[in-house]
């Protein structure tokens, strides 16, 4: 009996290990790594025969030579007038008063930046659940800072825990820095670390030229107004005027830049370890699918996030704690 119990436990551990080894922590919003390219040497095909040369065209008939016209007589030389017209302005004269006193055109109005929805700093903790297993495989944490000077800093950490950490210890970190623009968050830099080491997937934005430079391949790509990185996307939703109507948002994942279509599924009341929330259910679709539930009564915080990869596996981040530190009056 004891032997059967040990075997059953061992099989259970093995099944869970296989399932856990199957997930990719490039998951939470990122596109899984593509398979490596394979090269194969082959004998080149024989050269194709040269194309037949077309026959030369027949010589063109000579045009009859026309007689050369006689040169026209040169026009008489221009003689400058002895005096300028009486009504002409000389260099020393002033402009008429009505012209000199004309007001300059007004400068174009500058749109002020949006007010921060999350003033001050705070922390949002999650438990990570793999839906296909129905078990917790990790934990996550988001932190934000809005110091009141027009800048922001977002940080996210996700790591395996429990049995998942035993078979696949992994910690991934994201950081987004930028400013508040008229339309909300305007990221300037995006950084990615895996187990404390850069993954070569950083991105730098230049909003003067509306371009982003991807460290992964060194490419520079044009970005649409309002584009976000993978982390700031979760918090930019709070600045959309009507997210329930859907929209399109450009997203930089660290590996590429692509437009995400944003769809809304209406209001839902959800239960999480942090409590019950009245939320708006949104879905951002690119190469993968990311669903976000923003709490309508709690600063539109992303209290639940679900990522579904190309294999159909889905992972959920469910809020467990919310800590808010209000900003001091300026």
Describe this structure in words.
This protein is mainly beta. It has a domain at 121-324: outer membrane lipoprotein receptor (LolB), chain A. 11% of the residues lie in helices and 39% in strands. The protein is built from 4 helices and 16 strands. It has a 16-stranded mixed sheet that branches. Strand 14 and strand 15 form a beta hairpin. The radius of gyration is 34 Å and the shape is globular.
Helices and strands in order, then pairings?
Elements: H1 2-21, H2 97-100, E1 120-130, E2 135-146, E3 151-160, H3 162-167, E4 171-181, E5 184-194, E6 197-198, E7 203-206, E8 211-214, E9 220-222, E10 228-229, H4 232-236, E11 247-252, E12 257-272, E13 275-285, E14 289-295, E15 302-308, E16 314-325
Parallel strand pairs: 10-11
Antiparallel strand pairs: 1-2, 1-16, 2-3, 3-4, 4-5, 5-6, 5-7, 7-8, 8-9, 11-12, 12-13, 13-14, 14-15, 15-16
Structural class by sheet pairing and helices: mainly beta
What percentage of amino acids are in beta strands? 35-45%
Any idea what the shape is?
Answer: globular
Mean pLDDT: 78
The radius of gyration computed from the alpha-carbon positions, rounded to a whole number of angstroms, is: 34 Å
> Largest sheet at a glance?
16 strands, mixed
The helix fraction, in percent, is 10-25%
Number of helices: 4
The counted number of beta strands is 16
Task: Output the CATH topology of the domain at 121-324.
Answer: outer membrane lipoprotein receptor (LolB), chain A
CATH class of the domain at 121-324: Mainly Beta
- What's the architecture of the domain at 121-324 in CATH terms? Clam
The string of secondary-structure elements, in order, is: HHEEEHEEEEEEEHEEEEEE
Euclidean distance between termini CA atoms = 71 Å
Low-confidence stretches: 5-42, 71-95
